[in-house]
């Protein structure tokens, strides 16, 4: 069953990669919580859309998805942690970045949605 959550997480990143707001919105529970190098914030749908659209200047490319750990918490909850390597393509090619990510998924109205996502940049090794 963990495969289902892994596939949802990959679908979410595909939506980010393809700049497909409708897919990402459908997979997100609002307000969602985001924790990153910019701090912790609760984000409503309007703010989320603004954040999403602010990424128009560059394109993400998922290069690698590894070290995946996923668990179900009861029938309606799941957590996933993994390392992702992202290429960022804009005006000039930037070095790929690696992040350790976690997401919490909940099942609402028979659909899985992400309610919490964290990203921590990994130091270059």
Helices and strands in order, then pairings?
Elements: H1 2-17, H2 21-26, E1 28-36, E2 39-43, H3 45-53, E3 59-72, E4 77-89, E5 97-108, E6 111-121
Parallel strand pairs: 1-6
Antiparallel strand pairs: 1-2, 3-4, 4-5, 5-6
Structure overview:
The mean pLDDT is 92. This protein has 125 residues and is α+β, with helices and mostly antiparallel strands. Strands 2-1-6-5-4-3 form a 6-stranded mixed sheet. The chain has helices spanning 2-17, 21-26, 45-53; strands at 28-36, 39-43, 59-72, 77-89, 97-108, 111-121. A hairpin with a 2-residue loop joins strand 1 and strand 2 (39-43). It contains 3 helices and 6 strands.
Task: Please name the defining characteristics of this protein.
alpha+beta, 125 residues, globular
Largest sheet geometry: 6 strands, mixed
> Can you count the helices?
3
- How many beta-strand segments? 6
Percent of residues in beta strands? over 45%
Q: Fraction of residues in helices?
A: 10-25%
Task: Quickly give the structural class.
Answer: alpha+beta
Strand and helix order: HHEEHEEEE
Radius of gyration from the CA trace? 14 Å
Please, what is the oligomeric state?
Answer: single chain
User: What's the overall average pLDDT, rounded?
Assistant: 92
> What's the N-to-C terminus distance?
33 Å
Shape: globular
* Low-confidence segments: none
- Strands of the widest sheet, in order across it, are 2-1-6-5-4-3
């Amino acid at each position: 069953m963990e495969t289902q959550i892994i596939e949802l997480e990959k679908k979410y990143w595909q939506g980010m990669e393809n700049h497909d707001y409708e897919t990402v919105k459908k997979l997100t529970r609002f307000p969602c919580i985001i924790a990153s190098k910019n701090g912790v914030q609760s984000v409503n749908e309007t703010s989320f859309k603004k954040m999403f659209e602010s990424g128009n200047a560059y394109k993400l490319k998922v290069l690698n998805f590894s070290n995946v750990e996923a668990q179900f918490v009861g029938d309606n909850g799941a957590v996933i942690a993994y390392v992702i390597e992202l290429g960022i393509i804009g005006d000039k090619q930037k070095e790929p970045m690696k992040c350790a990510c976690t997401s919490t998924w909940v099942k609402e109205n028979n659909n899985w949605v992400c309610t919490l996502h964290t990203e921590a940049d990994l130091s270059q090794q």
